[in-house]
Write a structure and sequence with these properties.
Bound molecules: 2-phosphoglycolic acid
Number of domains: 1
Order of helices and strands: EHEHEHEHHEHHEHEHEH
Strand content: 5-15%
CATH architecture: Alpha-Beta Barrel
Distance between the termini: 24 Å
Number of strands: 8
Shape: globular
CATH class: Alpha Beta
Structural class: alpha/beta
Largest sheet: 8 strands, parallel, barrel
Helix content: 25-40%
Length: 252
């Protein structure tokens, strides 16, 4: 084992609000942030609103939705881990399937970003998951194994690193209203842990579920000790929804 978690207060479960490319205005962002400002929540707004959200929240923690792997320099349009750290960001989502699919982000790019996050004391939230077709073809384990092995390859054997958070997010469950089953997720947790061991990676990550989580279905996942939390997209833009999810998580 190496490293420690960035403890987010008393709760063992981690709830992450991924706002994606929402909302449209600063005013709305400040409103949602103010209304969702509870302990044990990590809020990941668009880069543009990070500073305003950091000034609005007092209890929640701040996360970014991505980062670049270099600290500074001629990288037009990118945001560095140092800039994020200096703004009070503690977490960074890396390798979200929307970035892999829409921007061609590869496992090697993901690996560089994960290492850059850890080098700057940001806890990386590595997203892994398969498409509907890949699942139908029985390739789920192959895909997840590859994403984990390559994605974590640059930090796996470094001493004194922060442990990453791993979010299993089946792509077919994201934004569809149809989550995976808790049973499948429990199998996936086992598989992820086994893969880390067989890869020789001395990491001890928290493993969370993402994909159409809302206040109605969150408990089915969060009640299991093995499932360490949830990554919430659409439902996280409604403060009453995300607060309910955090409350459910606190019970376990
Ligand atoms: P969703 O998104 O909750 O809207 O399905 C989850 C995610 O992509 O992180």
């Amino acid at each position: 084992m190496c490293g420690i978690y960035d403890k987010i207060s008393s709760m063992d479960k981690i709830i992450i609000a991924n706002w994606k490319m929402n909302p449209a205005s600063l005013k709305e962002a400040e409103k949602i942030a103010k209304e969702s400002d509870v302990e044990d929540l990590i809020i990941c707004p668009p880069f543009l609103f990070l500073e305003a959200v950091s000034k609005t929240i007092h209890k929640a923690k701040l996360g970014a939705q991505d980062l670049f792997w270099e600290d500074k320099g001629a990288y037009t349009g990118e945001v560095s881990p140092v800039e994020l750290k200096n703004l009070g960001v503690k977490y960074a989502i890396i390798g979200h399937s929307e970035r892999r699919q829409n921007l061609g982000e590869t496992d090697k790019i993901v690996a560089k970003k994960i290492a850059a996050a850890v080098d700057n004391d940001l806890t990386p939230i590595l997203c892994v998951g398969e498409t509907k077709d890949e699942r139908a073809a029985g390739k789920t384990e192959e895909i997840i194994k590859r994403e984990l092995k390559i994605g974590l390859s640059l930090l796996a054997n470094q001493p004194h690193t922060l442990n990453p958070i791993i979010a299993y997010e089946p792509i077919w469950a994201i934004g569809t209203g149809t989550p995976d089953t808790p049973e499948n997720m429990l199998n996936m947790v086992k598989f992820i842990k086994e893969t880390l061991v067989t890869s020789g990676y001395t990491l001890n990550p928290k493993i969370i579920y993402g994909g159409s989580v809302n206040s109605q279905n969150a408990e089915e996942f969060l009640k299991h000790e093995e499932i360490n939390g949830a990554l919430v997209g659409g439902a996280s833009l409604k403060s009453e929804e995300i607060i309910k999810i955090v409350k459910i998580a606190k019970q376990y």
